[in-house]
Amino acid sequence: MNGVEPGTPCWTDLATPGLEDARRFYPKLFGWTGRISTVPDAEGYTVFLKDGRAVAGAGPPATPDQVPIWSTYVATDDTDLVATRVEAAGGQVLVSPFDVSGQGRMAVLADPAGAVFSVWQPMAMRGAELFNAPGAMCWNELVTPDPDGAREFYALVFGWHAEERTAGPIPYVGWRCGARIVAGMLPPAEPLPADLPAYWTVYFAVEDTDATAARAAELGGTILVPPRDNPAGRAAALRDPQGALFSISTLR
């Protein structure tokens, strides 16, 4: 199934103290519908659907002081092994591997520069059911002040190979996993926000980047980086009303 080969980003979700707000904001922005979990210990975890297919999730933060954040989940066939590799490579295990009520096994991890990501070992839930279409995840990108450290770390953890893919003035790296480029990396364009030492950003595809950015602002969000063209399309970086960062892109 598309998008769930080990080493490939397969899911994204939002950890936020403003879950009610998120259930209002994102459906208005992306045309999503929300399905709230009825599992007792799921704490209102919501799966967002686009045209009936799962594209993303949202739930409460793992710890009370966690900043609102969109997480990139990378598929794996062994969550525990990845957690061990992360520690051996100088990263942190923020939430140790645990089972999610028969859906899968996951862990929350951080690289040595502080970029947080998760891994997902699929059981009943394979990951997102739609990619690279309006309202669905279309790209994942590491923004880090330490690209050399990241190259070593992600090679050890996922076997990713960093490939130079610079098409303009900014050095851009593609992460190769087997035959595919599965994600990207670039240095920060401006100084990073204090609450994000380095971060993984999730891109959602949209029909019209400019219109969606304007709509996000109308709904109480913030335009962090205004729409601009890049080799892949036209993108913008936004924050939702609670401050969670995400990006949007019109694909070429």
Explain the overall architecture.
- The chain is α+β, with helices and mostly antiparallel strands and 252 residues long.
- Helix content is 17%, strand content 42%.
- The chain is built from 4 helices and 16 strands.
- The strands form 2 sheets. Strands 2-3-4-1-5-8-7-6 form an 8-stranded mixed sheet, with helices on one face.
- The longest helix is centred in the N-terminal third of the chain and has 12 residues, at 19-30.
- The radius of gyration is 17 Å and the shape is globular.
- It starts with 8 loop residues before the first strand and ends with a strand.
Outline the low-pLDDT stretches.
none
Number of strands: 16
Q: What percentage of the residues does DSSP assign to strands (E)?
A: 35-45%
Percentage of residues assigned to helices: 10-25%
Strand order of the largest sheet: 2-3-4-1-5-8-7-6
User: Could you tell me the mean pLDDT?
Assistant: 93
- Determine the number of helices (DSSP H or I, runs of at least 4 residues): 4
Structural Rg: 17 Å
End-to-end separation in angstroms reads 24 Å
Structural class: alpha+beta
Main sheet: strands, sense, barrel: 8 strands, mixed
Principal-axes geometry comes out as globular
H/E topology pattern: EHEEEEHEEEEHEEEEHEEE
Which properties best describe this structure?
252 residues, alpha+beta, globular
Helix-strand blueprint:
Elements: E1 9-15, H1 19-30, E2 33-36, E3 46-50, E4 53-59, E5 69-75, H2 79-88, E6 92-100, E7 104-110, E8 116-122, E9 137-143, H3 147-158, E10 161-164, E11 173-177, E12 180-186, E13 199-205, H4 209-218, E14 222-230, E15 233-239, E16 245-251
Parallel strand pairs: 1-4, 5-8, 9-12, 13-16
Antiparallel strand pairs: 1-5, 2-3, 3-4, 6-7, 7-8, 9-13, 10-11, 11-12, 14-15, 15-16
